Amino acid sequence: MTADITTADSARADSARADSVRADSVSARADSVKGPAAIRIESLGKRFTPAAPLVLDDINLTIRAGEFVCLLGASGCGKSTLLDIIAGLERPTTGTVTVESGSAAVMFQESALFPWLSASRNVELALKLRGVPRERRQSEALELLDLVNLADAAQKRPHELSGGMRQRVALARSLAQDRKVLLMDEPFAALDAITRDLLHDELERVWRETSRTIVFVTHNVREAARLGQRVLLMSSRPGRIVNEWHIDDRADRRSESAEVARLGDEITNQLRQEIRRNAA
Q1: For residues 233 and 274, what is the distance between their CA atoms, to the nearest angstrom?
Q2: pTM for this structure?
């Protein structure tokens, strides 16, 4: 009996030390992020009701302007909730979130296009809501559709477009809001692998051309390794940032590259450890 207790205590101590090392490592890496901040999150916690369990706990994070950050974790870890709080769609229970530019555009998993409007008109609607004069809307919508390589489909309605094309229209509509921060909640999750790979290329190109700050939520490890300059791993509930990876932009970032595969394996191993720790 004594031996069992000692073993259990030792295991708990090892786990606590591992948590401390991870926390110190994450903090040190966060301090090394340079450049003006686009998003600051301090001591953020979230409960949906006072009696409900914590969904997010003590999130501290700085995302710099122009950075592409991927949020990764098991289903239910609070990734989308964190994104909703940054977007202003949910309020934190504790702590603060500051978007330096004032607001952010959001792109969801579903394209949510108006089916009775053409691709161009869907984008024009976002321009109208932004206050762009009528005489400029059509030309600006076409420029945005051209940016996502979809100008030829400007007059087609959503039912005439493939799933990947609808998501590109949704991306153009998000860009039409002209916000410096773009929040993306698993926007490619419902697409087939080939279409998703093509949209990864398109999104990377658009990001580099527009210098947007992008926060991209996914549970697909390879997707995070392919896209992110920085990948943040969240624990299961309550969601905390437990590890992160800074990725060299000069590395071969194609989905089939050895570098993405290696990084994907490393992140997957960490994710499995977090899932096992939560289940223990």
Answers
A1: 9
A2: 0.84
Residue-wise DSSP of 31-81: HT--S-EEEEEEEEEE-SSTTSPPSEEEEEEEEETT-EEEEE-STTSSHHH
Closest CA to 215 of 237, 187, 240: 187
Q: What's the token pair of residue 146?
A: 């051209």
Which helix (H) or strand (E) segment is 246 a member of? strand 241-246
CA geometry: angle at 264 spanning 262 and 266, to 5°? 70
Phi and psi for 118 in degrees, rounded to 5?
-70, 170
- 12-65: pLDDT as tens digits: 444 444 444 344 434 334 444 567 999 999 999 999 999 999 999 999 999 999
Is the pLDDT confidence value at 220 over 50?
yes
Buried b (16+ CB within 10 A) or exposed e, 103-142: ebbbbbbebebeeeebbbbbbbbbbeeeebeeeebeebbb
pLDDT at 6 over 70: no
Residues in the chain: 280
* Distance, CA of 150 to CA of 169 (rounded, Å): 8
Q: Is pLDDT at 121 greater than 80 in this prediction?
A: yes
- Answer yes or no: is pLDDT of 1 > 50: no
Q: Is 189 left (phi over 0), alpha (psi -120 to 50) or beta?
A: alpha
- Mean per-residue pLDDT over the chain, rounded: 85
Interatomic CA distance for residues 169 and 144, integer angstroms = 9
CATH number given to 35-103+179-280: 3.40.50.300
- Predicted confidence (pLDDT) at residue 7 exceeds the cutoff of 80: no
Residue 232: which residues within 8 A CB-CB, separation 6 or more? Answer: 61, 69, 70, 71, 72, 241, 243, 244
